Fold:
Amino acid sequence: MRPVSLTVLVLSLALTAALVSAQAATPLEFETGAGRLTIHPIGHGSLYFAFNDVTIHVDPYSRAGDYSVLPKADQIWITHDHGDHLDLRAIEAISTPETAIIADGVSAGKIDRPNVIALANGETIELGGVRLEAVPAYNLVRERSPGQKFHPEGMYNGYIATFGDFRVYIAGDTECFPEMKAFGPIDVAFIPINLPFTMSPEEAVGCIKVIAPKIVVPYHQGNSDPNVVADGLAGSGIEVIVLPLP
Structure:
């Protein structure tokens, strides 16, 4: 995929000349080759996108925000079936009969709604002017119990979404895995930093350098400090948007 050249508009953010962002993070606005993209971080691992007239929610979670007042979803993307990512009450609050739900195979089997599409690692779908690719999301080291990773390889999804010529990586719950080297150019990456389920902020710094996005947003923070990521990437040329601590 060819590199993109964009004028990036980030609302309510004060990005410093050193490329390390100040606090505040809602919303993020970008001009793509196919229209304006607005990304709303809701909290925890939850986001929603507004792209032209399409609204897309990612991992809606009732404890992250009040979904009764958020826009209805044209699409919902679910990364995996853990309760803070697959929240049926939040899904119900933002769904209409036409809402398309794209999910990993495990989650798809747990959602009793129309228009549920299971997407496995490596599969893609184009819907509403967006190309969505399911990519791996898994633990290399961290385990729930001996021999049982929190997120086993091949079971769950991250997503790379292409909006025109603008590519967004939503990592879901994962550690840094070798396949990331082949992702190609990423404009914005959402990378988890909470322990013990994903990776530490220090590990995330190395992971982000492998992916080399133009902008990174440490999310799914738990008790971790995203400023550690900002400090670790100082001078790297990667802009870091620091979300407010929970």
Notes: The first strand starts at residue 28 and ends at 32. The chain is about 10% helix and 30% strand.
